[in-house]
Amino acid sequence: MGKANYAIEALRANSGLAQSPEWQAFAQAAQTAELDASTLKVIEAAGLCVDLTMQRQSPALEAAALNLLQARALADARHALFAGDPVNWTEGKPAWHTALRAGRTREQPDGQDADSVCEYSRMTDFVRRVDQTADFSTVLHIGIGGSDWGPRLAIQAFGGPSQRRQIRFVSNIDGHAFHDAIAGLDPRRCLVVVSSKSFTTSETLHNARAAIAWLKQGGVADVSEHLAAVTANAPAARALGVPASQVFKMCDWVGGRYSVWSVAGLSIALTVGADVLIGMRAGAEAMDQHFQQAPFAANAPIQLALAGLVNCSVLGHNSLNIAAYSARLLHLVTYLQQLEMESLGKRVAGDGTAVGVPTAPIIWGMPGTDGQHTFFQWLHQSEDGAPVDFIASLQGHTDSPDAHRLLLANCLAQRQALLRGKCLEQALQDVAHIDDQERALSLAQHMVHPGGRPSTLIVLRQLDPRGLGALLALYEHKVFVQSVVWGINPFDQWGVELGKRLATGIERELAVPVSAGVVDWGHDASTSYWIDRYRGHAQAPRPRHAWVPGMAAHL
Ligand code: F6P
Domain of life of the organism in this record (predicted)? Predict the structure, then answer.
């Protein structure tokens, strides 16, 4: 068996984590490790600084972590990822987003050079043509999930009043989303970009058809000229009416949630320029190299992953808060929610048996300082709180140095408060002016912050495309390392299929005309009731099912 095949077999066989001696040693070392921030632990990687000082540390934990990673064959798995081996073993596909970043040198599987496979030049030529003709003042971007979040994130981060054209996004199937997106747009000056790897996603196809109808109604003579598509399913895009010259190919060996590195960046190039994409790819590639070359103990994605394993799988924290101290990273949380939760939200290992330890924390958050006025109370004083990844940059908007200083101060202060907390003695000092001793004590008890809450700080020099690319790749590789330890395949998403299939059947039932009479749908009582209620067949619930005024008196 070749090395690559060996790695795939090892990935598939990476089960039995909870019972393994390496895991048990790791868990034990994690429970006894200190969380006192006495030893600075900062890793520099691809222009980012990852500060893990406020995570549990000890020499025993470091040694146990290295043993664990060796036992889980991380080095082989990483080699398989970068070699383009089918690491998505349930679907027999590579997950070769790293090849998109290293595009300029790497030979692709069919022997073509990277650029002709990834179609970057075709895409940038198209953007140049669009810029030269100046026909389009707006872009309507249609896509969902991985075909939406990357462009939203990057354009929010690097766009603004001076961007070359405005953009509206529509992802949701809700008609309000489509109508809000087109409000005030001139269809004759609008380019519609349909982004869908599969070109079968019902929300995207529905919205694309609505956009075509809108273009036609708006007096556009040749609708096809107003359409571009990004997809791995070119025939479907052609069938919708997109001319071949405006269909850009996504590769089947890149997962949807990694597609921002592909021509799915078309809308980014059209609005904030292809340089943003080039910068993001360069930053991500620098992180790829760091991930491959840095020793495990000084490897930023690996150490970030280990901190997450301690917090989630050993200490039982079931969520991870992301607090980016940047208004321009508004969409980072949603981007990371898909990356982390669609990748790791699974509970069985390669052989189908349970992983046996808690996996995949819920990812949530909001930019700082808004989050401080929303849920930070919970982070500081609830029973368990949650670990936090703070993200900040050393430089901010050049016109507002004072504001940036304040932003950074808040970020540093919040993590210090989470770690240090505030004990009763300190709280009593705050209420020393109250004469009534009993009242002072009771008030002081409300002011106690338990502290001892872990966090990581990730610092960019400044928020630029390179930094954002490195940041996203950092999280991608963190996810990969955790998947290898847990034995999970991070590249499939079976969990979204069942609901999609059921929706198709229910939509058909909702459309059955009232004239068809009462139908036994064979569903549970609630689903059948709501199908009938929508069709106008069911009555409002009888009083015994619903609250009616005065009911409480009879209970
Ligand atoms: O949510 C499931 C999913 O398949 C994601 O993985 C993907 O990013 C999204 O739907 C959109 O898929 P597509 O790009 O094929 O339209």
Answer: Bacteria
